[in-house]
Specification:
The complex is a heterodimer of chains A (238) and B (262). Chain A is an all-alpha fold. Chain A is 82% helix and 0% strand. The longest helix of chain A has 38 residues. The radius of gyration of chain A is 22 Å and the shape is elongated. In chain B, helix 4 packs across helix 5.
C-alpha cells in the first residue's frame, strides 16, 4: 500500500517537472508520453523484457545454487573454508559491475555474460550470508549434536541449516534487488536483445520516451521480483 | 566430611568423573571424585562454582576449563539444558525425534508419540514449540531426552526458569519418567537438590562435599515441596551456601548461552 502511494507521489513530481517545460520533451518526457509509448510499443517491450527476465531468473537460480553449495561445502571441508573465506570477505568490496566488459569478452554476446553477471551478484551475498548463518547456530543447540555423536553432515542438515535460513533469506532479498540491474548492465556492454539493449538503442536515436518506457518496465520487473521473493520467503519463515 | 562420603552408598559405581579441573590456571574443582549411582545425583552450588563444567565433562562436551582425569560414561546419554533447545521449525514430534535423528537412528512415529504421551503432550504432537508454555516446552525436552533410552541422563538446571508450581510438577514428572536410570542434576536450588537427590553433593571451596540426602518418604513419590523436614534441611543448606563466601577466586562473567560458566 505504501509502495503504491510512494509511486504515485514520484510520478506526480515527475509529471510536474516535465509539465513545467523547464526541460525539452526529448530530454525529459512526461508520464503521459511514456504511457503512450508503453501502450504503443508493448509488444516490443514485452519481447525484450522476456529476454531480460529469463537472464535474471537463470542467474538467480544458478547464483543461489552455487552460493548455497559453496556455503555448505565450506562448513563440511576445513581446507575449503580456509581458502574461500577471505575471498568471500574481499568480494563484498569489489564492485562486480566492473566485470561486465570482461564477461562479454569471455562469454560472447549471447545471454551467457548477462547470466554470469547476475550469478556473481547473487553468489557472493548468498554464500557469505548462508555461511555466516551456519556459523551462528547457538552453542547450546550444537551440544545436542555432540551428545548424539552426530556426523557433521547431520549436524549441518538438522541443526545449522534451519538456523541459517533467515540469513539466507536476508541475502536473497538483497540479491533480487540487484539482479535485474546486473542483467541490464550486461546488456549495455553488448547484446542484441533485452531491455538494456533497447535502452541503448532508444538512446542512440534520441527516443527518450522509449528509453523511459524501458526504464519503467525494469523498475516494475524489479519491484515484482522483490515482492514475490518476499512473499515466498515469508511463507517458509525465512 | 570427605568427598568420598557418597560413594559408600552404591559401592563400585559403573560411571563417574574423577580428576582436577582448572580454569585460567586456578583450581576450579580439586580432587574431583564423583561416582554415579543409580537414581538421582544432585550437584548443588552457586553460579560459577563449576557444577555445569562437571556436567559438561560428564557429557563429553567442550568446556572452557582444563581437566585432567578419567571419565566413565555410557555410550548413550540423555541431555536437558537450562534452555529447552526446541527447534522452532519442527513440530513437537520432530523435536522429540531430533536427538535420535542426529544420532542417525530411525525412530518409529509411534515411539515418538508414546514419549510425548508420557509427558502428557500427546495431543499436541503436530504443534510448533512457539505455541507452548515454558513448562510444556521443558516437557518436550524431557520427552526428547527419554526417547533415546539412555542409561545416563544429565540435567543442567532444566527447571530453574519455570514458575514454582510448574517446577515442582516437572520435578515429579521427570522423577517418575527417569526411574531406574542414572540421573545427574545440576541445580542452585537446595529444595530441588534435597527433594530429588539420593546423592547430594555441595560444591564448596573448589571441592565436592557429600551431603546427607533425605530418605524418600515413599519409593515412588517425592516429598511435597512444603514438607517441613525438606524445608528445614533446605534452609540449613542455603545457610551453608550463603556463609561459604565467594564461590570462585575469579568469577567468570556469565552471559546467556554460555553453559560452561554456570
Amino acid at each position: 500500500m505504501r509502495l503504491i502511494l510512494a509511486c504515485i507521489v514520484l510520478i506526480g513530481v515527475w509529471h510536474a517537472v516535465a509539465a513545467s517545460q523547464m526541460l525539452p520533451a526529448f530530454v525529459l518526457p512526461g508520464p503521459p508520453a511514456v504511457v503512450q509509448v508503453l501502450a504503443r510499443d508493448h509488444q516490443l517491450l514485452a519481447t525484450h523484457a522476456m529476454t531480460t527476465a529469463q537472464e535474471v531468473i537463470a542467474g538467480l537460480a544458478l547464483g543461489l545454487g552455487f552460493g548455497a553449495a559453496t556455503a555448505l561445502a565450506m562448513m563440511l571441508c576445513a581446507p575449503l573454508r580456509w581458502l574461500v573465506q577471505p575471498i568471500l570477505t574481499v568480494s563484498q568490496a569489489v564492485p562486480v559491475f566492473v566485470l561486465a566488459p570482461v564477461l562479454t569478452i569471455w562469454f560472447g554476446y549471447g545471454p551467457a555474460p548477462k547470466i554470469a553477471m547476475v550469478v556473481l551478484l547473487v553468489f557472493f551475498p548468498v554464500a557469505s550470508g548462508l555461511y555466516d548463518g551456519l556459523r551462528a547456530t547457538p552453542q547450546p543447540v550444537l551440544d545436542l549434536a555432540r551428545i548424539a555423536k552426530a556426523s557433521s553432515w547431520r549436524e549441518l542438515w538438522l541443526l545449522r541449516l534451519p538456523h541459517a535460513l533467515p540469513y539466507l533469506g536476508a541475502s536473497l532479498r538483497v540479491s533480487v534487488t540487484y539482479a535485474p540491474m546486473g542483467a541490464v548492465i550486461g546488456e549495455w556492454v553488448g547484446a542484441s536483445k533485452g531491455l538494456g539493449y533497447l535502452m541503448l538503442l532508444a538512446n542512440a536515436r534520441m527516443k527518450t520516451d522509449l528509453m523511459f518506457a524501458a526504464l519503467v518496465v525494469i523498475v516494475a520487473m524489479t519491484l515484482t521480483l522483490v515482492t514475490v521473493t518476499d512473499r515466498l520467503l515469508r511463507r517458509v519463515q525465512m | 566430611m570427605t568427598s568420598h562420603g557418597a560413594s559408600d552408598h552404591c559401592g563400585a559405581a559403573q560411571w563417574g568423573l574423577h580428576g582436577d579441573i582448572t580454569l585460567h590456571g586456578q583450581a576450579l574443582i580439586q580432587g574431583l571424585d564423583l561416582p554415579l549411582c543409580r537414581g538421582w545425583t544432585c550437584l548443588l552450588g552457586r553460579s560459577g562454582c563449576g557444577k555445569s563444567t562437571i556436567l559438561r565433562l560428564m557429557a563429553g562436551l567442550p568446556v572452557a576449563a582444563q581437566w585432567h582425569g578419567t571419565r566413565r560414561a555410557p555410550d548413550r546419554i540423555g541431555w536437558m539444558a537450562q534452555s529447552d533447545l526446541l527447534q522452532p521449525r519442527l513440530d513437537l514430534l520432530g523435536n522429540v525425534t531430533l536427538a535420535e535423528r542426529l544420532a542417525g537412528r530411525m525412530i518409529a512415529r509411534d515411539q515418538a508419540l508414546g514419549a510425548l504421551q508420557q509427558v502428557g503432550l500427546g495431543a499436541l504432537a503436530s504443534r510448533r514449540p512457539d505455541a507452548l508454555s515454558g513448562g510444556q516446552r521443558q516437557r518436550v525436552a524431557l520427552a526428547r531426552a527419554l526417547i533415546a533410552n539412555a542409561p545416563l541422563v544429565l540435567l543442567d538446571e532444566p527447571f530453574s526458569a519455570l514458575d514454582p508450581v510448574s517446577r515442582s510438577q516437572m520435578q515429579e514428572l521427570a522423577y517418575r519418567q527417569l526411574a531406574g536410570r542414572h540421573v545427574v542434576l545440576v541445580t542452585h536450588d537446595p529444595v530441588e537438590a534435597l527433594r530429588l537427590g539420593a546423592q547430594v553433593w555441595l560444591i564448596e571451596e573448589h571441592r565436592l562435599i557429600a551431603q546427607p540426602a533425605l530418605a524418600q518418604s515413599q519409593e515412588k513419590d517425592l516429598r511435597d515441596p512444603s514438607d517441613p523436614q525438606l524445608t528445614q534441611a533446605a534452609a540449613a543448606l542455603l545457610h551453608r551456601l550463603r556463609s561459604a563466601g565467594a564461590p570462585h577466586p575469579a568469577p567468570t562473567p556469565y552471559h546467556k548461552g554460555c553453559d560452561t560458566c554456570g
